[in-house]
Design a protein that fits this description.
The complex is a heterodimer. Chain A is of the alpha/beta class. Chain A contains 51 helices and 22 strands. In chain A, the strands form 5 sheets. In chain A, strands 1, 2, 3, 4, 5, 6 and 7 form a 7-stranded mixed beta sheet that branches. In chain A, helix 25 crosses helix 38. The longest helix of chain A has 21 residues. The relative contact order of chain A is 0.06. By secondary structure, chain B is mainly β. In chain B, about 30% of the residues are buried. Chain B is built from 2 helices and 8 strands; from the N terminus they run βββββαβββα. In chain B, strands 1, 2, 3, 4, 5, 6, 7 and 8 form an 8-stranded antiparallel beta sheet that branches. The chains are: A alpha/beta, B mainly beta. At the A-B interface, helix 8, helix 9 and helix 22 of A face strand 5 and helix 1 of B.
Chain lengths: ~1150, ~110
């Protein structure tokens, strides 16, 4: 006997389903099923995974949804009356699937797309009824299952016999004939409870009475019984109520309740037969009715079997119609013509061998594109790219798309693939039928505008954003597990804070291993002994939640482009941005043949665009820019061509050979530069000392988990610096590996190695590369390689090369990616070398990097760039570079702080302040900018009125002013005298400020810096470590700038504020923690190995100010780091072990109780590099 | 009616239905078609661990309502008694959950049973 489960929630029913589609399909197939449904709540979130899982398991997929229905008699916008399951009929060329997609989009059309919206995802019964028939044929294409969660099922409690019947009749009246069945479910709960056999019997009898087919389901939420407890925890997370709460007052829970039993698993056909017998028995019905129930179920299953290809377009690529991009001719001809035009632009005057080479390459690429029929795909991407350029937004292609000459010629990419020897087959080959990925980077600040423009350009019916699934990670899992158990929020929060990047599934393992969890592990153990097992349970439940999807959100960059049928193929729902978002994620794109463009907002692109605008604003002519940036001028010339007469710099035209740029990179002072600012990268460039653009490509490609983990870096550096001779496995491979000194770094080299040794062709070589590291496919590749290579090479060579391929192949880096990344890396370093003030202003404005903004402010201080304080009349809504008019820094360029990012100041206030500048008095500011009292006080604390105050001639100081404003804040406000429009107010200066009595002492530097940190998360007046310096000097602490002068292996103490914490994967699997601190003279990068982690325990991840003892490790001519042995919390100086730190005869140093500006600030984590 | 938790011996039919019950040294025969259902447990209070793979029986347990008469011949005059027995799904052990009044067993609504 076979039984088909028609009502199954997968884990993609967020906070509801427990099991993954793969488990469910495998289990169903193992039990002898020939089909399985996936009916996730509210959408098709798991449907494509279900399709694949069913195909792998050799059973037919059935697709549907579990949807809420609005109450016909209630408020149509908010009140729902139960849920129903809707299944799509199959084998009708997608008519059923189409209707399902549209129905689900209907259900979401009214929602806000924001969390906690008042309007639920639900359909009206009218919408449901109208979607069940195909609009063309008017035949039923959907079936609605009225089950235990429907209004009918919910009305079965108690003794109201009439109510369920009335509701059932309403459904019959509303639904077209043949579109509705009754769903009989028993979870064997106590008689009379929901999901009891008694209720199942009543549903069955209703169906019999009205001659509606009844089917049997088990309303599955988990694959096996074990999942029931996880479902309980998910119920708690969904309803935001603890399990004790949910279980004590089930009737008082409007949001739902716990499952009455744990019987909602994927029962076997035999168990389902037993269950149906039990129901029939209780109903007093016989064999005939039993057979009928099961036959109905299978008949519906048969009707709903989906053909993935014919119904859902499995793996069939769909791109926008050529007409939409303005092409009437054959797209292939159009593409060829555009490439021809591109040759003249990109390679003017090319001829001879080079020209020949170019032609051959182009024909090769166009041949493949033509055979795959992807011409309109390339034209579409080119269209998007050109549209963005026309908007004046910086745009760059990233990723393997840079491997294509076609992309370069039609302006999708900025990297010349011939010059960098990039292989087209890495991007696309005749042996792949899926659409290749082209990633486009745009300025982050313009990303949403770009999205809207794409919607406008292609039409809302052809475009939707892609979504992404957000699954439970350790911190979220422990929070929700704690809530389920009813633990206090603070307690759970404390535990969550200590969880540092490991999978929730390994929680118990982590308790044993991780020093920062030592305290918690102890509590778990003591709890178990004292019979308080809550913490033990907490660990188990956290592990249960691991990876389960929590919600979907807008993917940070994916835009799906299709033809006019796109919305027949994916349901959409509003994103937080308001634009529609597909319910499918990136894993669903290839299976569904969807063209996804990655339009990624890159903050660095915004920062660079900002810097270029600042340069031209300050230096509005070519001569001024050339002088300010010390750009090269040939004798008698006016300076480089990439600077326009009006001073505009064309960054993309800057040649890649600027020596000052490479000098800056080699100095390792690369904070703020794209891709090379992290502690690890600074160490690597210090060792590598890049001299040319290709070095940057190699550097970026080497700094990846794979190469770092497999120790490729050391041999590479040894060969590069000539410490060890370069070794090639065979002379034939020398041309392939020469640029990286014999070390295999790039995917491209793996492809060529395969090709050189087996003559397999680059397209097959790329398939082989993809198979590396895949348990199933790799052995085949090895067999082929050995068989072919042995024909021309010795067994030793074959062995050695295979070893390399096997080891590096799965995680080497695509050179095209590296090349595409290296462009903004070079450009940002170029800006930092030539226009540091404008560049830093851009960085402050757009905050692109991995560090807290305050570190980049510290970097300006280190570079001697004046940081100009907040000033109510000079500060704008953006950071601005200013030429300093007076004082010791006269003539220098400084950066003026912006009014954005002040705690409490609203966007509207900010706009009014800037619009009304300048102000001659506080009264003027109050009257015209209408800034709230607390914000006026905050501005005063930050010194924004200091200049105004000074100009007024008042004798008081900032503290007096703050005190005065504080007093005003608590007095009732008087209505300010209205200034009549058109009447000029007399410039009287500020009487209020002038008359302020000087009473209080001037605020200390520490007070000022504390206010800055508290309100802006930036230390402006001085570095926050400066006030700690006297104590640190007594302790003999070494500053960052002095470290480079020390010998390797010197024991030192260093101190600073945390800016970054990283735990990269390491060879051997033992965790290494990198902590970087900033002490005002630079960064100290320290590494904590196992023992130092044990010594430092909870300080590893929880502290902002650190005192670290360690020994210096020289990493290169300009690089030095610290191998830490122990760390202390500097924010509690009174608790430092002075006896250990100072010689015996010295007493406690003066100022050992000094608390710096960070003391007492709890508000802003953006100050330090905690928790990133 | 009272709530208890003492061990009882149960012999089942091939289909897993209780046939005979051994309770307080007396053997009883099940005289009706027993009613079976599942009830949820407050496992977060009752259990100290709930690791993945704990299997069945964490969230609910199986309840059987049986009507019994003593098996011995001299007990013909005695009234039938109704018991709710609970079977632990994991271990298969039986315990007594409730004793109902001697009145004929009838499925009681959960409010009454609680």
């Amino acid at each position: 006997m076979s039984f088909t489960h028609l009502h199954v929630s997968t884990a993609f029913s967020a906070h509801y389903g427990v099991s993954w589609p793969e488990e469910l399909a495998k289990t169903a197939a193992a039990g002898g099923a020939t089909a399985l449904a996936c009916t996730d709540r509210d959408g098709l979130y798991g449907t494509i995974k279900h399709l694949k899982a069913c195909m792998d398991a050799g059973i037919d997929p059935i697709v549907g949804v579990d949807l809420a229905v609005f109450d016909d008699d209630g408020d149509h916008r908010t009140q729902v009356a139960g849920r129903v399951v809707v299944l799509a009929h199959g084998n009708n060329n997608g008519a059923g699937y189409r209707a399902l997609c549209r129905l689900i989009s209907d259900a979401h059309a009214r929602t806000s797309g924001k969390a906690g919206g008042a309007i639920p995802a639900a359909v009206t019964r009218g919408e449901l009824a109208s979607r069940t028939l195909d609009p063309k044929t008017l035949k039923p294409v959907l079936t609605v299952l009225i089950g235990p969660d429907s209004d009918v099922g919910q009305a079965m409690g108690g003794r109201k016999y009439l109510r369920p019947r009335t509701l059932f009749k309403q459904w019959i009246d509303a639904m077209p004939p043949g579109t509705m069945v009754a769903e009989v479910v028993s979870h064997l709960s106590a008689p009379g409870e929901p999901l009891s056999t008694a209720h199942a019997v009543r549903m069955l009898k209703l169906a019999l009475e009205y001659n509606i087919p009844a089917i049997l389901s088990n309303a599955v939420r988990y694959c096996a019984q074990d999942g029931a407890a996880t479902a309980d925890v998910l119920d708690s997370a969904r309803t935001l109520k603890s399990l004790p709460e949910l279980s004590t007052a089930p009737l008082l829970q409007p949001t739902g309740t716990l499952q009455p039993t744990g019987q909602g698993w994927l029962k076997t056909p035999h168990q389902m037969l037993q269950l149906s017998k039990e129901i029939m028995n209780a109903a007093g019905l016989g064999k005939a009715d039993l057979t009928k129930l099961l036959t109905n179920t299978e008949a519906l299953a048969d009707k709903c079997r989906i053909d993935p290809v014919l119904d859902m377009g499995w793996k069939k690529p769909v791109v926008p119609e050529a007409s939409i991009i303005g092409i009437d001719a054959d797209p292939m001809i159009e593409l060829t013509q555009r490439c021809e035009a591109g040759i003249n632009r990109r390679f003017p005057g090319i001829k001879g061998d080079a020209g020949e080479h170019l032609r051959t390459r182009l024909e090769h690429e166009l041949g493949i594109i033509g055979r795959l029929g992807f011409a309109s795909y390339f034209l579409t991407v080119a269209e998007v790219s050109r549209m963005i350029l026309d908007m004046g937004v910086r745009v760059a292609a990233r990723g393997s798309g840079a491997s294509s000459l076609v992309n370069y010629l039609i302006d999708i990419s900025q990297v010349d693939p011939i010059r960098h020897d990039l292989i087209f087959e890495r991007f696309l080959s005749g042996r792949r039928s899926t659409l290749p990925d082209i990633d486009i980077d745009v300025e982050s600040a313009e990303r949403h505008t770009v999205y809207r423009k794409i919607f406008d350009r292609f039409g809302a019916e052809r475009v939707t954003l892609m979504s992404m699934q957000n699954g439970y990670r350790a911190r979220g899992a422990v929070r929700d597990a704690g809530m389920a158990l009813g633990m206090p929020d603070e307690e759970v929060g404390e535990i969550a804070k200590q969880l540092w990047r490991f999978s929730a599934r390994k929680f118990r393992e982590a308790l044993v291993e991780k020093p920062e969890l030592r305290d918690f592990a102890g509590r778990v153990e003591r709890g178990a002994m004292e019979e308080n097992q809550q913490l033990d349970l907490l660990v188990d439940l956290t592990e249960r939640l691991d990876r389960l999807p929590r919600h979907i959100s807008m993917h940070p960059c994916g835009v799906i482009l299709g033809d006019a049928t796109l919305l027949d193929r994916t349901p959409v729902q509003p994103s937080g941005l308001g634009l529609p978002m597909s319910q499918f994620d990136k894993h669903d794109m290839d299976p569904m043949g969807m063209l996804k463009l990655d339009v990624l907002g890159v903050r660095m692109q915004s920062a660079m665009a900002f810097a270029v605008r600042e340069v031209i604003r300050l230096h509005p002519s070519k001569a001024e820019v050339v002088a300010a940036g010390r750009h090269p001028v040939e004798p008698g010339g006016a300076g480089p061509d990439y600077i326009a007469p009006d001073g505009r710099i064309d960054l993309n035209a800057v040649p890649f050979d600027d020596e000052p740029t490479y000098e800056l990179i080699r100095s390792t002072h690369t904070l703020g530069c794209f891709q090379i600012e992290s502690p690890g990268q600074r160490e690597l460039i210090g060792k590598m000392a890049p001299r040319e653009f290709n070095d940057l490509i190699i550097d970026i490609s080497l700094f990846r988990p794979g190469p770092m983990k497999s120790d490729m870096v050391r041999p590479f550096l040894e060969h590069r610096h000539g410490f060890a001779p370069e070794i090639y496995p065979h002379q034939d491979l020398k041309p392939v590996l020469e640029e990286t000194h014999g070390v295999t770094v790039f995917h491209e080299q793996i492809l060529k190695t395969f090709h050189v040794m087996t003559n397999c062709g680059l397209d097959r070589a790329d398939e082989f590369r993809r198979a590396l590291g895949d348990e199933v496919r790799e052995p085949g590749v090895e067999k082929y390689f050995r068989k072919e290579a042995i024909k021309n090479y010795s067994p030793e060579v074959v062995d050695k090369v295979w070893g390399t391929l096997k080891a590096f192949g799965s995680f080497g880096f695509c050179k095209a990616h590296g090349a595409a990344f290296a462009v903004p890396t070079y450009q940002s370093a170029w800006l930092k070398a030539h226009h540091p003030e404008a560049f830093l202003a851009g960085l402050w404005e757009h905050d692109p990097g991995m560090y807290p903004k305050r570190l980049l402010v510290a970097e300006a201080r280190r570079l001697g760039i004046p940081i100009l304080p907040l000033d109510i009349n000079r500060s704008q809504a953006e950071y601005r570079v200013e030429k300093i008019q007076q004082g010791p820094d006269q003539g220098k360029l400084g950066i003026r702080l912006s009014l954005t990012g002040i705690y409490g100041l609203s966007g509207a206030e900010l706009k009014r302040i800037v619009a009304g500048q300048p102000y001659d008095s506080l009264a003027d500011l109050r009257a015209r900018a209408r800034v709230s009292k607390p914000n006026i006080k905050r501005l005063a604390q930050l010194g924004a009125f200091d200049a105004l105050h000074k100009d007024s001639g008042g004798k008081a100081n900032r503290a007096d002013l703050v005190h005065h404003l504080q007093a005003l804040q608590s007095s009732p406000s008087k209505k300010a005298a209205d200034v009549i429009d058109g009447q000029l107010s007399f410039a009287l200066g500020d009487i209020e400020l002038r008359n302020l009595a000087p009473e209080l002492p001037e605020p200390s530097m520490v007070d000022n810096v504390r206010a800055e940190l508290d309100l802006m998360a930036v230390d402006v007046s001085e570095h926050l470590m400066d006030s700690h310096r006297p104590l640190l000097d007594k302790l003999g602490v070494t500053t960052a700038d002095k470290l480079l002068g020390l010998r390797n292996g010197t024991e030192v103490l260093v101190a600073g504020v945390r800016i970054a914490t990283q735990t990269p994967p390491m060879r051997g699997g033992r965790r290494v923690v990198f902590i970087s601190i900033d002490d005002g003279t630079g960064c100290v990068d320290s590494v904590f190995f196992h023992e130092a982690q044990q010594e430092s325990g909870p300080l590893l991840f929880g502290t902002r100010l650190l005192l670290i003892r360690g020994t210096t490790r020289r990493t290169g001519p300009k690089g030095i780091s610290l191998s830490a042995s122990k760390a202390w919390d500097l924010s509690r100086p009174e608790a430092l072990p002075y006896a250990e730190l100072l010689p015996a005869e010295v007493g406690l140093p003066e100022g050992y109780t000094h608390h710096g500006p960070l003391h007492g600030i709890s508000r802003n984590l953006a100050i330090t590099g905690l928790g990133s | 009616m009272g709530l208890f938790s003492e061990s009882v011996g149960v012999i089942c039919t091939d289909t897993g239905h209780p046939r005979e019950v051994q309770w307080k040294g007396t053997r009883y025969t099940v005289t009706n078609e027993p009613v079976r259902w599942y009830e949820r447990r407050q496992w977060w209070l009752e259990e100290s661990r709930a690791p993945l793979g704990s299997g069945a029986g964490l969230v609910d347990h199986e309840i059987w309502r049986v009507q019994l008469l003593p098996t011995s011949a001299d007990a013909e005059t005695s009234h039938p008694i109704t018991l709710d027995l609970v079977r632990h799904v994991g271990s298969g052990r039986w315990r007594l959950l409730r004793i109902h009044d001697a009145a004929p067993a009838r499925a009681v609504e959960p409010e009454e049973a609680a």
